[in-house]
């Protein structure tokens, strides 16, 4: 198995007075709004305590990255965290020799999702504790 990408552990941590159902609604709304050219985030569904997404390109035919938002009720409202489940990487080579660092495909849209979800939660609950962590892989 290959080494994990440096952004594989990147996540958004949420602690808010909003109910868990509202965090789920906001995550779905934010996910459906993020697009970049032929690449977009697609809402894959929801289960108890989570919403699932994928970053896809070329008319939803190519899956670059999958992630979910874990959501749970807390005494003061709810907590949540994004988790990258799977991803693909690319690396430029010259005559089979790597000449650039590996790039996590779809990470730009995932990062935008984390930022927009954090902004949406703060807009409804200014006292929310929301933190984005990168490069923990």
Can you tell me about this structure?
This protein is of the alpha+beta class. 23% of the residues lie in helices and 45% in strands. The chain contains two helices and eleven strands. A hairpin with a 2-residue loop joins strand 8 and strand 9. Helix 1 packs across helix 2 (107-124). The model has no long low-confidence stretch (mean pLDDT 92).
Brief descriptors of the model:
137 residues; alpha+beta; seven-stranded antiparallel beta sheet; 23% helix
**Ranges with pLDDT <50 over ≥5 residues?**
none
| Oligomer kind | single chain
User: How many strand segments?
Assistant: 11
Rounded average pLDDT: 92
Q: What global shape is seen?
A: elongated
Q: List the strand order in the largest sheet.
A: 2-3-4-5-6-1-11
Count of helical stretches: 2
* Structural classification: alpha+beta
Largest sheet: 7 strands, antiparallel
C-alpha Rg, in Å? 16 Å
How widely separated are the two ends?
15 Å
Strand content: over 45%
Which sequence of SSEs, written as H and E, runs from N to C? EHEEEEEEEEEHE
The helix content is: 10-25%
């Amino acid at each position: 198995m290959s080494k994990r990408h440096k952004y594989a552990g990147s996540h958004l941590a949420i602690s808010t007075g909003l109910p868990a159902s509202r965090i789920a609604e906001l995550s779905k709304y934010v996910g459906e709004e993020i697009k970049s050219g032929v690449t977009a985030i697609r809402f894959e569904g929801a289960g108890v305590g989570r919403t699932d997404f994928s970053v896809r390109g070329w008319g939803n035919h190519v899956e670059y990255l999958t992630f979910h938002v874990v959501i749970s009720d807390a005494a003061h409202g709810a907590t949540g965290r994004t988790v990258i489940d799977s991803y693909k990487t690319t690396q430029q080579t010259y005559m089979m020799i790597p000449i650039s660092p590996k790039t996590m495909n779809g990470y730009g849209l995932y990062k935008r999702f984390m930022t927009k979800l954090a902004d949406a939660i703060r807009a409804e609950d200014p006292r929310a504790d929301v933190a984005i962590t990168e490069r923990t892989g």
